[in-house]
Amino acid sequence: MRIRAKICGITRTQDAALAAELGADALGFVFYPDSPRAVSTSQAADLSQAVPPFVTRVGLFVNPTADLVDTVLTRVGIDLLQFHGDESPAFCAAFGRPYIKALRVRADTDLTAAAERYADAAGLLLDAHVDGLFGGTGHSFDWSLWPAQVGRPLILAGGLNPENVATAVRQTRPYAVDVSGGVEGPHKGIKDAGRLRAFMQALAEVDGHA
Fold it and tell me: CB–CB of 193/18 below 8 Å?
């Protein structure tokens, strides 16, 4: 099965358009104010209009209020919710949209228990554990901790870039990969066209679909 790709932290229309043109399956809009890639609901609504059919629009949240999620769902065309904080399964499932739950992985993380706890999640995103940070760190976790089977689609995130995505995919064989900073230049939130192309090409080659 083809490994899917999500490009997260989209802040510009041209980046959304290029990512979709290159074959990205999903684009992520960040609604976490502390993130350098955060967008407002009005910005996201404009960006959403640039996303072509059959590309999933993902709203990323970190410990949000229900009002914030409801506002985003009302004003922005969001297809899938992504929760990166300490949200409960009941909270994640309360909005009538499919969701994925991010888990910050370290050696003592019980991924099987987490998969059971979030049994109604559409998938689980495995990211690096960095104290005080909720994703977008640019750090990888130990890929040897990747579980063999937890009964949920698994998405690999954390420190991915054009140089290491092939190695990461060979070691983990995820359902999908999620990249943000690894396809940026010096300015967070601004995707680099060359790095984005290189990432998607490396993924296609390792996945046998180049």
Answer: yes
CA nearest 182: which of 135, 113, 126, 118?
A: 135
Closest CA to 56 of 161, 145, 178: 178
Residues catalogued as catalytic: 8, 127
How many domains are contained in the chain?
A: 1
Determine the structural domain holding residue 9 and report its residue range.
Answer: 4-206
pLDDT above 70 (res 210): no
Residue pair 28/177 in contact by the 8 Å Cβ criterion:
no
The whole-number pLDDT of residue 94 equals 98
| Nearest partner of 34 among 137, 124, 127, 180, judged by Cα | 137
CATH assignment at residue 11: 3.20.20.70
Query: Residue 104 forms beta bridges with which residues?
Result: 127
Confidence of residue 52 (pLDDT cuts 50, 70, 90): very high
CA–CA separation, 62 and 195 (whole Å): 27
Q: What is the pTM of this model?
A: 0.93
Name the amino acid, one letter, at 172: T
**What is the rounded CA–CA span in Å between residue 121 and residue 52?**
25
